[in-house]
Amino acid sequence: AAKEQGKGAFHFFTSELQRVASERLALEQQLRQAIERAELYFHFQPQVRAADSRLVGIEALLRWGRDETSVSPARFIPVLEETGLITRVTEQALREACTALKALEVRGLADLRVAINLSARQLKQPDLLGQIQSVLTTYEVRAKQLEVEITESTLLDDAQCQTNAAQLSTHGVRLAIDDFGTGYSSLTYLKRFDVDALKIDRSFIADLLLDEDDAQIVGAVIGLAQGLGIDSVAEGVEDLAQRARLESLGCDLIQGYLIARPMSLDELLTWTGNGGSPDKSDVMARDQG
Ligand code: C2E
Ligand code: MG
Ligand code: MG
Ligand code: MG
């Protein structure tokens, strides 16, 4: 009986594996098609100064599908990375980021910056600096207005990643460490690279008021950033209590649903036009009329 059962389990296991593999293949084919048809696009999430809510920059986040939630980046970005398709996204990220920055500038919001996320594969691209410089030149965006977000593990990945990261920062592009505190957490790269910002991972912010350990960790990271003279950024700030706590801990910058969700460029322009609120257009019209 045990043998029978084992055999059944084996059959179940292989068919389950087959299902996962074919789903993965289907997703890959859909993604290739989406890239050919230019169906990947970016949304932008504001980053504000904690002290006075002043907009300082935006982060470009990759999207696929009709709305914010259709296909989660957590599901399709790993496939883009495994297949190498992600390198085809880098140039698009740069162009859309620069386009957004210029659109904000035209509306009087100068000196903002835009962040793009780079995976190890993207950071490893040969002549990444040349590619970035050429897009910046085309759009007349200064290097210091661009920030690249890389995770701790990406930065330690290999020599090419490190060379590219060092080159970028030498040429004035800002480096931010994304999901700070969740990677290898070797702090040596803070000595070796000219890092400009630490983005405290959302998981620490989520439990900031519930767990004293998280509060201690967040406080320590903010202190570390202050000591190094760089920015601390809190990711995933969702409520006022978290924000108040972050402010009292001395956090520089805040990003999260409390401020705004990631949105299309059009929505972002409306949002900034409304002074950073989603839907005050009727109030504004009344005030002006
Ligand atoms: P990330 O760079 O750490 O981005 C922050 C994620 O948190 C985003 O998820 C954002 O939508 C989400 N988020 C922001 N505020 C809040 C909040 O208040 N609450 C909650 N619950 N979530 C919040 P998203 O867009 O799903 O992206 C997931 C990850 O995918 C990103 O994490 C980044 O690592 C990666 N990613 C996104 N776009 C790109 C890209 O263009 N290239 C690469 N290589 N990776 C990307
Ligand atoms: Mg990021
Ligand atoms: Mg620098
Ligand atoms: Mg993050």
Automatic annotation (TrEMBL):
Protein name (Swiss-Prot/TrEMBL): EAL domain-containing protein
Superkingdom, natural source: Bacteria
Gene Ontology MF terms in the entry: catalytic activity
Native source organism of the sequence: Thiorhodococcus minor
Keywords: Membrane, Transmembrane, Transmembrane helix
GO biological processes: signal transduction
Segments forming domain EAL: 24-276
Cellular-component GO terms for this entry: membrane
